[in-house]
Amino acid sequence: MPSSHVKLLLTENVDNLGIVGDVVRVRTGYARNYLLPFGLATEPSDELIKDLATKRADAEKQLAALRKSREEMISKLDGQELTMTRACNDQGQLYGSVTQQDIANALQEVGFDIKPREVRLPGTIKRIDTFDIHIKVDSDLGADIKLWVVADRELNTDAEPEMEFDSEGELIEPRAKKAKPAKKETAPAE
């Protein structure tokens, strides 16, 4: 039975896998369809490992510098507040939703290099409210920001109550309180 994994030597840094010079064990399909065709890995040999030693040292320096800059960014990002204006109905339901991409773009506009996949949403944001959002740039580097989603207009909060419909789609009229029939005053019997 053929093995479902293969050992390869990385010739380039590969996110979530390793850096140049690492010998990794990956599934054969990943190796055959991605790593080998794009020149990101090759069969390991002692000669190649020695040849990639300087490239690996450079990659380690770059990763250390990236780690330091990310630590600084996270310390500045922690506790930040972000406000986004969105169109919504009178009940505060958004016509669209706020996505990871929207939040990442807003953070980039204020100077933070955040990718959409680093934004961890607790759920779909589809209403006007305040949300705590976790930003995770590395397995052990994260920050929490507060997101304020506000309406693009003044909401009409004292509008008529929302209409209700029955299962056939007919409007349910609100029941008015029935007035108690007035007691007939009867004249005392003579």
Architecture overview:
The protein is an alpha+beta fold. It folds into 2 domains: 5-51, Ribosomal protein L9, N-terminal domain (Ribosomal Protein L9, domain 1, 3-Layer(aba) Sandwich), CATH 3.40.5; 75-160, Ribosomal Protein L9, domain 2 (Roll), CATH 3.10.430.100. Helices cover 26% and strands 29% of the residues. It has 4 helices and 11 strands; from the N terminus they run E-E-H-E-H-H-E-E-H-E-E-E-E-E-E. The chain has a 4-stranded mixed sheet with strand order 4-9-8-6. A 3-stranded antiparallel sheet has the order 2-1-3. A hairpin with a 2-residue loop joins strand 8 and strand 9. The chain is elongated. The mean pLDDT is 83.
Determine the strand fraction and express it as a percent band. 25-35%
* CATH architecture term of the largest domain: Roll
Order of adjacent strands in the largest pleated sheet: 4-9-8-6
Helix content: 25-40%
Q: Using only CA atoms, what is the Rg?
A: 31 Å
Count every beta strand, where a strand is a DSSP E run of 2 or more residues.
11
SSE series: EEHEHHEEHEEEEEE
Q: Give the CATH class of the largest domain.
A: Alpha Beta
Shape: elongated
Unreliable sequence segments: none
What is the terminal separation in angstroms?
A: 113 Å
> What's the CATH topology name of the largest domain?
Ribosomal Protein L9, domain 2
The structural domain count equals: 2
Structural class by SSE content: alpha+beta
